[in-house]
Amino acid sequence: MLRGGLIGAAAVTVFGILLLFGDNYALRLGTTVAMYVTLATAWNIIGGFAGYPSFATAAFFGLGAYTSGIALSNGIPLSVAWAGAGLIVALFAVMLGLCILHLRGHYFAIGSLVAADVLREITNVWVSVTGGGIGLNLPLPGGDAETQAKLFLCVMSGLAGAACCAAWTLTRSRLGVALRCIAQNEDAAQVIGIDTGRSKIAALALSSLFVGIAGAIYASWTIYIDPSDVYDVSLSVKPIIMTLLGGVGTVTGPIVGAFAFLGLEELIWRNSLEFHSGFLGLLVVALVLFLPAGLGQLRVGSIWTRIRTVLPPEARP
Amino acid sequence: MTQPLLQVNDLAVRYGDVQVVWKADLVVEEGAIVAMIGSNGAGKTTLLRAISGMLPPYGGEIIFAGEIVPASAPPEFVRRGLIHVPEGRRLFARLSVWDNLMLGAYLRDDKAAIRQDVERVFALFPRLRERRWQDATTLSGGEQQMCAIGRGLMAAPRLLIIDELSLGLAPRVVDELVDALRKVNAAGTSLLVVEQDVATALEFADHAYIVDRGRTVASGTAAVIAADPAVRTAYLGL
Q1: Is residue A281 part of a domain?
Q2: Number of folded domains that form chain A
Q3: ipTM score of complex
Q4: Angle between helices A145-171 and A24-43 (to 10 degrees)
Q5: DSSP letter assigned to residue B37
Q6: Domain that holds residue A66
Q7: Does B151 touch chain A (CB under 8 A)?
Q8: Domain residue ranges of chain B, discontinuous segments joined by +
Q9: Which of A93, A310, B32, B59 yields a CA-CA distance of 20 to 30 A from B115?
Q10: Which among A177, A191, A195 is the nearest to B84, CB-wise?
């Protein structure tokens, strides 16, 4: 609780400083981190709380981006387009959930992974509506560059805040208890009278709502979207790494993880253009081996113990 | 004529294309202790899972307290008091005994009655009280079974369905569990028990069903079943 308050206060301070003194680069970075917080927190609802490792984040993100993009091209007001995109994505998530949420573990992961590919292909082929592989240009929101940058920082941060509030409320709700029981032991959850089917679908829909709106805002922010960009599989993978980095199944974990991940990304991507995905892979391995519960569990002594337990006995110092 | 608490008519259950239960008919009278016996793979667990809503049946109907229970809504079964204690206990790991018991009352919101029921469970199984802050999966097998039964009782069951009561437990622990369940039954909860140990089952129950290859093939009072020569050779090894 105290920890959550501190992290919240720090995030608000960063937001205020950015808004007052940030240059364009800093504003862009701030908007990106807000988007990462949203995606990681949203993934944590289904992947962390309910324990269903979803790879459908890219599908929800791309669908949100395209729904909003198409709506805006047809003259629908910005706020309606964004909210509508979120609702349509949530509806899509309910249908997807009905199809694949009875699968468990790896099977569910594979099933969810396919969703983005299917949507990408549909977007590619349906040229008359989506513009196909050429992409879609969105109408400019108006105002000068700095006002726009600040607007998107505010909106994306607002969404991130809403996602975190939703996650926090969830941990204190009946549905939250149900999801944790499902993650822990789904058979037992059923025995005590939890409607496992509905709970899982609710979690997936809630998660997708935030991802869809994030996609919609992203589309307006970058003005141009194409299928390979907004349905990119890295959009599914990055939120998982962020959540692993910060701590799965906690409210603060995804927030901390998103900031840490953006830091690493800026550091590694800028200095190593060729090998950055290699670093990403190494990071995943290191996380799983040494910090399975995320940065929150970081203690100097415990890392040493972990290194010792992972090493073969003859290599132990 | 009074209505039975549970009546199962012509129940059939499939896993995909594989049919496991072909035709099961079963009656549990209010206040009764009913045992279900049969060899491994006869379909007892599947049948129990269907009766408690864990598996959607392929055919047939389940009538509980005079009403057909809709198979599409598993929580309905729990809400009506048809509670399943699953095979292998299925406790929530990393949660204490207390939390596991409390989760049994997930669908209830009558706080005072829930407190009373916890006390009742602790009175029934004093060892759970001693270990109430311990991770439930670190308990001994017998204590885990007590915790699982306790969790079932926390849902305020009218019918408690127990799958494999004594599996892997020491005979002394089984006696303790049977004593506790007799008290539960005396307080008004009906019981439907699957039990490997046929001798114990027939001593404990008033009524018994024999399940063979997915069908309920014989039934009768426990004494009659116990005296049946076919049962004596097939299950009691006499």
Answers
A1: no
A2: 1
A3: 0.85
A4: 20
A5: E
A6: 2-234
A7: yes
A8: 1-81+157-238, 90-156
A9: B32
A10: A191
